[in-house]
């Protein structure tokens, strides 16, 4: 057997470690052949009886065991134990796991059985005493738990349960207590199957011991059993078990009855919130409280006014008040918290009224972390449900109250979750960070009830791009597989399908199909509001308006007013759907559509934050209304304003929708194919950056004729770096460059000689070039602009003292056209061109315009030169473009030459034949082709795509020696996501291994 392992390289000798290394996983996965079995049995039989007995106890511990634990269980001296184990090791039955590792002493060594069959042989030896052996192992492990050792409680209880035959009757009750501890730990960790096993075992031991059913241990074991059944998806048995405990009545304490009510509320919150509220009402009667299920608005306003006044008075004293930790009071607060979610689904106004009363009671009773959470939830409810009544938040947006009362780890991530919810309206990016932080912390600590709620909240309120959504789904995938309840799995499933449909057009048909049709996949009764909104959004984006209207109508039948995220999203996409149908609608339908648009605009003006009055979504609806009203100049301005706001919000999906609607307006109502092409290109870019690849494919397919002339995206070519020796030889001295330039044609020399008269300042060369361009071309106004993600920024202005509003005077449509085509453009008369509808041209009546890209080697994005003459048409010609390109090339050449001797150390060479050809082309009126060749004398990373911030973080973690699993835990992402980042890093750096990546990154100063 050993020889075969050596041949197959499962067993090898390491010279450096001076020991044998084997592949334990492969060894254990192999089934023994007949000859191997015979050899194993002969080896085991050759051992002394004392050694066999020792191995039998070792087999009870498990396939792997420690020598110290084995010695303590058997009552042997450590040296004697090692002597007997050495004999078994010599026979090839066991082997060392920790040989050569630091910290391995003579007293403590780790062994394992070299084959599962050997483990079975040892366990079967004197099997009648195995129960007693298990009992001794369990007792020894349990003593380690009590002393704070690493031995786990559940492992100890597993051995004690298997050793029940050797357990004295008087110790059965204590064994039941141990099982209660293990079941508690299992339920907290989300291990519901093990929790059920321990709870049932504990109840069985209590029955054998003759202990009554009303014992405290029995009550809590049944409570853990109910939680385990519920976590495993068996709601009805769990409910019946709790109701059976409730029949004990007065034999239970008040605190125990409230625990039962809380679990009943928790079990029914997502399954049937009406029943959960009924249980909550019964629980409140324990404290003499009455739940008003449908309070009037006047009653709510009265309670809120009193509570707001008290909170204002105690806004400082609350943070300094003593913490009240009375057990019954904490249970009461916990019950109130448990009621928040079902009451929110049932009646948000009733929850506000209940919390307003309880906060006044609690402030007089005393503060604790639970009451602090109730106060934050109360203010969150006022923000969402009664925004016009109470605008002031005393605690929800402050860290003080949370930090004062978040002494427990659980309280900290609960408060982080509440902070995230409170910030959703005004600061969605911050909100998402808080929610994800609380979610991952809850998953790490095994708070499964909280995590299920947090997963649902994170998904139904998500407003980011599809790439981050995929990361979120990856990070919760493992958790959902084992611990999620049915509702959570349903939400995760619909979110995954939603994201997939937006990425892959082939999946959209099945996702949005109306039930009952040939391709319908779902029954109406199974669709909640969130599911309907997801299908509505995909249907609208894929221009399937019939399906979109169906899902919009269905969403209204089961929506909740308190689920503001889904409701607002629903109203927006429903309005956009009917607006898209307007051109083909009849007279009566058009009247209805106009009324719906006006109603939606009026509704959105009352909203704040996402989809609110200052949002890009509101601007889009307003532009749609103006399009229907028929005011072309106002429509273009409205669309551009909405697109600008979408950029500010960094909402690529909204920007894509806006640009697509603008493109349709250009094409079908203004009959401007150029404007439609530019807007549609912007839409494709925005959709692509957001991850909506299916929409990009649809646009390019349906508008192929429109986009046929669309240029390929501008790519910055990487610098071709040679070795240091080659670079040195290719860098000509400045004298040789001057001689090469001097060989150019005389006419070209005369143009270049004019550069000093143009006033080129190499320290501020863009401004100097602009001044030269204005004088050379006959323009009366000009700018040089840089291209930014959020728009354009003026980097050179001949009149720097002007206001910011004055410097933004340029035709955006011309700039966009130049940027997209990467070609210069000359407008002989802007008022007679298809750019006449540009708001700037229309307002200023500009006549001649010239715009050209300025591509500088080493810069990631181009600059734009913008020139105009507001009074005279036909000022600029193509020859002006050639001259400006030639001046620009020479200016950049001189600037880089100067920089070579300073900080950047660049050298740019202009080939004499190229410059001569350029001069001849200008004289002949042909376009000039000027080539710049840039070479660097310093190491520059030769990759095209730079590393993202997350990739740099992952690379730094790799440099610290962290594994993929450790990196995932550090950043809260799945291990598969880490592997994806690592693969991209290797590709960008041009390496194959982690060590190579770290070395190269340090060489290029990417990391320290």
UniProtKB/TrEMBL annotation:
What keywords appear on the UniProt entry? DNA-binding, Transcription, Transcription regulation
- The stretch of residues making up the signal peptide is none
Family matches, as Gene3D superfamilies:
3.30.450.40, Winged helix-like DNA-binding domain superfamily/Winged helix DNA-binding domain
Question: Would the keyword Transmembrane turn up in this protein's UniProt record?
Answer: no
Q: Which CDD domains match?
A: LuxR_C_like
Please give one Gene Ontology molecular function term for this protein: DNA binding
Q: Where is this region: Disordered?
A: 723-742
Q: Does the keyword Transcription regulation belong to this entry?
A: yes
What InterPro entries does UniProt report for this protein, alphabetically? GAF, GAF-like_dom_sf, Hybrid_Histidine_Kinase, Sig_transdc_resp-reg_C-effctor, Tscrpt_reg_LuxR_C, WH-like_DNA-bd_sf
| Ranges for domain HTH luxR-type | 940-1005
PANTHER family, per the entry: HYBRID SIGNAL TRANSDUCTION HISTIDINE KINASE G
| Record protein name field | DNA-binding CsgD family transcriptional regulator
Where does this protein come from, organism-wise? Paenibacillus eucommiae
């Amino acid at each position: 057997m050993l020889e075969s392992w050596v041949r197959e390289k499962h067993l090898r000798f390491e010279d450096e470690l001076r020991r044998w290394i084997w592949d334990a996983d492969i060894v254990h996965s192999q089934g023994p052949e007949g000859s191997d079995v015979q050899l194993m049995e002969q080896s085991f039989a050759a051992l002394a009886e004392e050694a066999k007995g020792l191995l039998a106890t070792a087999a009870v511990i498990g396939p792997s065991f420690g020598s110290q634990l084995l010695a303590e269980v058997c009552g042997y001296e450590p040296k004697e134990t090692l002597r007997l184990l050495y004999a078994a090791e010599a026979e090839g039955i066991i082997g060392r796991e920790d040989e050569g590792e630091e910290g391995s002493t003579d007293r403590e060594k780790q062994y394992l059985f070299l084959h599962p069959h050997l483990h079975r042989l040892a366990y079967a030896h004197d099997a009648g005493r195995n129960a007693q052996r298990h009992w001794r192992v369990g007792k020894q492990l349990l003593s380690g738990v009590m002393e704070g050792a690493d031995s786990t409680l559940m492992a100890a209880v597993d051995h004690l349960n298997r050793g029940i035959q050797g357990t004295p009757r008087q110790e059965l009750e204590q064994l039941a207590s141990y099982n209660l501890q293990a079941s508690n730990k299992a339920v907290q960790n989300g291990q519901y199957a093990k929790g059920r096993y321990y709870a049932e075992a504990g109840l069985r031991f209590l029955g054998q011991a003759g202990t009554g059913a009303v014992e405290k241990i029995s009550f809590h074991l049944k409570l853990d059993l109910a939680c385990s059944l519920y976590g495993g998806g068996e709601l009805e048995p769990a409910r019946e078990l709790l109701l059976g405990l409730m029949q004990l009545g007065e034999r239970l304490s008040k605190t125990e009855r409230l625990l039962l009510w809380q679990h009943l509320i928790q079990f029914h919150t997502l399954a049937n919130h009406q029943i959960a509220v009924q249980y909550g009402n019964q629980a409140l009667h324990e404290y003499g409280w009455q739940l008003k299920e449908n309070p009037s608005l006047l009653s709510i306003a009265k309670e809120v006014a009193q509570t707001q006044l008290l909170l204002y008075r105690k806004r400082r004293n609350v943070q300094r008040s003593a913490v009240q930790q009375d057990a019954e009071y904490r249970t009461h607060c916990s019950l109130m918290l448990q009621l928040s979610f079902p009451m929110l689904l049932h009646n948000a106004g009733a929850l506000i009224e209940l919390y307003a009363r309880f906060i006044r009671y609690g402030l007089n009773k005393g503060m604790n972390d639970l009451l602090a959470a109730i106060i934050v939830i109360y203010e969150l409810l006022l923000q969402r449900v009664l925004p016009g009544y109470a605008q002031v938040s005393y605690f929800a947006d402050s860290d003080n109250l949370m930090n004062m009362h978040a002494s427990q780890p659980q309280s900290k991530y609960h408060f982080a979750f509440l902070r995230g919810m409170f910030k959703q309206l005004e600061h969605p990016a911050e909100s998402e960070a808080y929610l994800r932080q609380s979610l991952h912390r809850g998953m790490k600590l095994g708070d499964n009830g909280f995590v299920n709620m947090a997963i649902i909240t994170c998904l139904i309120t998500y407003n980011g791009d599809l790439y981050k959504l995929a990361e979120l789904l990856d990070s919760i995938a493992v958790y959902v597989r084992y611990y999620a309840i049915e509702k959570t799995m349903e939400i995760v499933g619909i979110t995954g399908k939603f994201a997939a449909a937006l990425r892959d057009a082939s999946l959209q048909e099945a996702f949005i199909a109306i039930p009952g049709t040939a391709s319908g996949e779902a029954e109406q009764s199974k669709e909640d509001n969130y599911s309907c909104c997801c299908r509505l959004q995909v249907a609208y984006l894929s221009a399937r308006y019939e399906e979109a209207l169906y899902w919009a109508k269905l969403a209204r039948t089961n929506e909740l007013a308190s689920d503001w995220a889904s409701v607002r999203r629903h109203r927006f996409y429903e309005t956009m759907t009917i607006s898209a149908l307007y051109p083909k609608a009849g007279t009566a339908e058009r009247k209805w559509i106009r009324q719906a648009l006006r109603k939606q605009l009026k509704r959105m003006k009352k909203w704040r934050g996402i989809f609110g009055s200052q949002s890009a979504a509101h601007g889009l609806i307003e532009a749609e209304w103006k399009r229907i009203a028929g005011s072309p100049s106002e429509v273009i301005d409205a669309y551009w304003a909405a697109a600008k706001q979408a950029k500010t919000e960094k909402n690529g999906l909204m920007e894509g929708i806006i640009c697509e609607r603008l493109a349709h307006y250009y094409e079908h109502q203004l009959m401007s194919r150029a404007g439609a092409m530019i807007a549609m290109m912007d839409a494709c870019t925005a959709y692509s950056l957001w991850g909506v690849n299916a929409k990009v494919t649809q646009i390019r397919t349906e508008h192929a004729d429109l986009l046929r002339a669309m240029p390929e995206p501008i790519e910055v070519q990487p610098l071709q770096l040679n070795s240091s020796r080659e670079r040195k030889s290719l860098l000509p001295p400045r004298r040789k460059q001057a001689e090469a330039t001097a060989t150019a044609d005389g006419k070209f020399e005369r143009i270049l000689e004019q550069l000093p008269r143009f006033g080129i300042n190499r320290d501020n060369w863009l401004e100097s070039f602009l001044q030269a361009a204005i004088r050379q071309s006959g323009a009366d106004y000009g700018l040089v602009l840089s291209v930014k993600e959020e728009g354009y920024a003026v980097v050179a202005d001949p009149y720097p003292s002007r206001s910011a509003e004055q410097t933004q005077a340029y035709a955006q449509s011309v700039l966009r056209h130049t940027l997209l085509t990467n070609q210069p453009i000359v407008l002989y008369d802007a008022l007679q061109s298809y750019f006449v509808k540009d708001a700037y041209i229309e307002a200023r009546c500009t006549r001649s315009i010239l715009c050209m890209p300025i591509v500088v080697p080493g810069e990631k994005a181009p600059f734009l030169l913008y020139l105009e003459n507001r009074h005279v048409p036909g000022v600029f010609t193509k020859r002006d473009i050639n001259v400006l390109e030639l001046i620009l090339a020479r200016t950049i050449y001189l600037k880089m030459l100067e920089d070579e001797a300073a900080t950047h150390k660049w050298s740019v060479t202009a080939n004499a034949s190229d410059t001569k050809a350029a001069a001849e082309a200008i004289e002949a009126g042909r376009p000039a082709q000027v080539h710049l060749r840039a070479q660097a004398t310093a190491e520059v990373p030769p990759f095209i795509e730079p590393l993202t911030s997350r990739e740099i973080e992952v690379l730094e973690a790799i440099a610290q020696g962290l594994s993929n699993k450790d990196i995932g835990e550090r950043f809260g992402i799945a291990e598969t996501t880490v592997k994806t980042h690592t693969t991209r890093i290797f590709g960008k750096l041009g390496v194959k291994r982690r060590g190579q990546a770290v070395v190269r990154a340090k060489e290029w100063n990417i990391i320290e």
